[in-house]
Amino acid sequence: MAAAARAGVQAVEKQLKICGIKRNTDVSILYLAGQGLRSIPSLSRFHRLRYLWINNNKIQDLTFLTKNYCLTELYLNHNELTDISGALKHLCALQIVFLHDNQLQKLVETVKELKGKISLHTLNLFHNPLAQDADYRLYVIHALPSVQLLDRKAVTQRERESALYLYNQERSCAVLPIAFGKRVSTILGPPLGSRRARAQPGRSLTVPSGWKSGNYTEKVPFENPEDAVLVRAMTRSVMEFSCVDWNKVATCQERRLENKVEEPLKKVTIQFR
Questions:
Q1: Residue 262: what pLDDT?
Q2: I need a labelling partner for 218 at 20 to 30 A (CA). Which of 118, 176, 210, 270 fits?
Q3: Domains by residue range for the chain, with CATH
């Protein structure tokens, strides 16, 4: 064990000598990859360390990462890690984390350690036992919404919606159908004078007998496809969006320097389904 610790210290000192770094505060990059290291000495003296490569070694714990709060990129792939609990939670600036090709088994604990890192956008966890769990990818996407690239594959909007539906169905039902605005009470139908109203002035809606109060008691096809569109629209919430032209509003400086009467703001409101 002493030999492994000594090898880690020598590797760090050798890297500092190669880079010609004499002060600890000047260390922002540390490359210790592919040296067969089993142990790394504490790196707490490198307060400004941002980029750390320890991949392709035999590391089994991360106790050396205690006060490296500036770390943004951490490469730990191809090691012998079985658990990272308590090792990365305090590193809130992380943006890129590579943990693939290890022996991580606990999916929930591993993801919990990475939660709350709003800057984390790239994460690799493949070739770990935890990646064999059912719905592994959707679980990670739901738990770590900031991640944009997971296991070398971009996270799609469809995957985010599937993850939301799978792990938070109540919120999914409330969020997914709504884009923006608020619900309002109004009658169904095109506004007076609209093109759609003029195009079909006397058209009536023919509803199949199997349709009742927005729910189908049996699958009855519509004779006219446009009737199906209108019936589906009846089940949607009416939305209202209001906006104001703020370019016509005087600033504080203009109010102070110019004595002119302000015109009342005109709010434009649009209702739609």
A1: 65
A2: 176
A3: 2-174 (3.80.10.10), 182-272 (no CATH)
